[in-house]
């Protein structure tokens, strides 16, 4: 599973004709309480499939069989895991999950429309646990995806199943929201602030602690949002504290590292990447000849096939006309390639939890982790958790017979860690094998 950063990545997916069937409206989508007390979430997935998730991080894809049951496969591998799922009629709302009976969890749900920055109409949804008491509320903020968060985000149910309210919204230019898709972080931050205001309004007297959670691109957006309006917390999952261009450079370097190429090969790959990044940054107006010269110079070398990067891969096979068309079609002109996130992070007084994966190729974590640790050492109310072996999306993976990654599950403790931080602004000492760094006078519990 991959959540790609840039609009260029979205273009590449479209070019490869990766299709998603409309399972978002499947009547089985929801969270279910099992007889043993666990909650299992059933969410839309690829094609004619659904995806289940447990709060422990285990997950699988299910496909309907001829007898009406659904057979499960392990993580994103496509390999059968032996689990079977069965649903009652939708009106009844029952499930049998791996021989455990369960029933759909009822939530208090309020759909809404509100005004984003510049008068753009945004649509959202507040999902609250049943009851009248105060609960914490988390506003879920997009990464760079162009899909509808209201249709696809499982956390909008997974958190309420744990007693936490969740507000989910389609960011501008996606789903049912108006406006034009953008990667302008300031605009997205202003929209996030409006979303929090709407979440507070809808939750009313039930709102306890209110803050944000977001992944990937949201790592640039949320620090701007919390500096604009008060929030009780912010959780950044697999985000970055470096520039967009530095992200791609770090990603290419990791490509070389994981494929065991030499320092000299890495130097060449980064030279090629810098040339390609300049083409992307200038929307194809500058640097194409230099980039193409390097492609032709290096394409026969063994390391060339392993160059991917965060967005470089999208232009590697394209000629000038194709690059120009891609830039115009996918709004790359809104991407702030040189945005420096550290000033916003230094200015913030909002407690933040950063959760990173050591093996993240799309948002390489080493430099970001170093910078967050530095801010913690300076006394910022930040907490850092780095999961060894985790990639983008906070998933673990295995390698197939071609050496390609296949995600298997979410990192153990990842969802619980976020829930604990939402509730108290602190986390415990152990969540799977995450390495945790917290402020000295504000230790993990």
| Percentage of residues assigned to helices | 25-40%
Shape: globular
What does the average pLDDT come to?
91
Secondary structure category = alpha+beta
First-residue to last-residue Cα separation: 32 Å
Rg over C-alpha atoms, rounded to the nearest angstrom: 22 Å
The number of distinct helices, counting runs of at least 4 residues, comes to 12
Q: If strands are numbered along the chain, what order do they take across the biggest sheet?
A: 9-10-12-11-13-14-15-16-19
What is the strand tally?
19
- Strand percentage, roughly? 25-35%
List low-pLDDT spans. Answer: 1-21
How would a textbook summarize the main sheet? 9 strands, mixed
Question: What is the topology?
Answer:
Blueprint: H1 7-15, E1 30-34, E2 39-44, E3 49-54, E4 59-64, E5 70-74, E6 80-87, E7 94-97, E8 100-104, E9 107-115, E10 121-129, E11 135-141, H2 149-152, H3 155-158, E12 165-169, H4 185-203, E13 207-215, H5 218-228, E14 234-237, H6 244-258, H7 263-281, H8 288-298, H9 320-329, H10 342-347, E15 352-357, H11 366-377, E16 382-387, E17 395-399, E18 405-410, H12 414-424, E19 435-438
Parallel strand pairs: 11-12, 11-13, 13-14, 14-15, 15-16
Antiparallel strand pairs: 1-2, 1-8, 2-3, 3-4, 4-5, 5-6, 6-7, 7-8, 9-10, 10-12, 16-19, 17-18
Helix pairs in contact: 4-5, 6-7, 7-8
Structure in words:
Among the domains are: 18-104, Lipocalin; 244-334. Helix 4 packs across helix 5, helix 6 (244-258) runs antiparallel to helix 7 (263-281) and helix 7 packs antiparallel against helix 8. The protein is globular. It has 12 helices and 19 strands. It has helices at residues 7-15, 149-152, 155-158, 185-203, 218-228, 244-258, 263-281, 288-298, 320-329, 342-347, 366-377, 414-424; strands at 30-34, 39-44, 49-54, 59-64, 70-74, 80-87, 94-97, 100-104, 107-115, 121-129, 135-141, 165-169, 207-215, 234-237, 352-357, 382-387, 395-399, 405-410, 435-438. Mean pLDDT is 91; it is low at 1-21. With 445 residues, the protein is an alpha+beta fold.
């Amino acid at each position: 599973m991959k959540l790609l950063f840039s609009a260029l990545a979205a273009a590449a997916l479209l070019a490869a004709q990766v299709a998603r069937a409309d399972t978002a409206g499947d009547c089985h989508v929801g969270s279910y309480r099992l007889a043993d007390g666990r909650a299992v979430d059933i969410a839309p997935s690829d094609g004619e499939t659904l995806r289940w998730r447990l709060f422990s991080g285990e997950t699988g894809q299910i496909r309907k069989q001829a007898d009406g049951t659904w057979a499960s496969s392990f993580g994103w591998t496509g390999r059968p895991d032996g689990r079977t799922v069965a649903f009652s009629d939708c009106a009844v709302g029952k499930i049998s999950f791996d021989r455990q009976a369960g029933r759909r969890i009822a939530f208090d749900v309020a759909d809404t429309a509100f005004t984003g920055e510049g008068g753009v109409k945004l649509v959202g949804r507040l999902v609250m646990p049943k009851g009248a008491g105060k609960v914490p509320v988390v506003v879920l903020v997009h990464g760079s995806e162009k899909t509808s968060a209201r249709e696809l985000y499982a956390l909008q149910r997974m958190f309420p199943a744990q007693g936490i309210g969740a507000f989910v919204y389609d960011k501008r230019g996606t789903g049912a929201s108006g406006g034009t898709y953008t990667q302008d972080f300031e605009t997205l931050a202003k929209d996030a602030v409006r979303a929090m205001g709407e979440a507070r309004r809808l939750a009313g007297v039930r709102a306890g602690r209110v803050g944000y959670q977001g992944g990937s691109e949201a790592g640039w957006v949320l620090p701007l949002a919390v500096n604009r309006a008060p929030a009780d917390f912010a959780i950044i999952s697999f985000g970055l504290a470096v520039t967009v261009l530095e992200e791609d450079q770090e990603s290419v370097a990791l490509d070389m590292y994981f494929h065991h190429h030499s320092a000299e090969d890495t130097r060449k790959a980064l030279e090629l990447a810098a040339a390609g990044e300049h083409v992307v940054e200038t929307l194809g107006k500058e640097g194409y000849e230099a980039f193409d010269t390097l492609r032709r110079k290096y394409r026969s070398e063994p390391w060339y096939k392993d160059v991917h990067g965060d967005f470089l891969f999208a232009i590697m096979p394209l000629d000038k006309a194709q690059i120009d068309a891609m830039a115009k079609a996918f709004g790359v002109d809104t991407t702030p390639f040189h945005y420096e996130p550290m000033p916003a992070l230094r200015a913030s007084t909002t407690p933040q939890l950063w959760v990173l994966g050591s093996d993240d190729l799309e948002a390489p974590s080493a430099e970001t982790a170093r910078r967050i640790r530095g801010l913690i050492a300076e006394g910022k109310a930040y907490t850092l958790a780095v999961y060894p072996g985790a990639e983008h999306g906070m998933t673990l993976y295995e390698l197939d017979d071609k050496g390609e990654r296949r995600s298997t599950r979410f990192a153990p403790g990842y969802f619980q860690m976020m829930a604990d931080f939402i509730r108290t602004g602190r986390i415990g000492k152990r969540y799977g094998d995450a390495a945790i760094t917290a402020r000295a006078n504000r230790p993990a519990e």
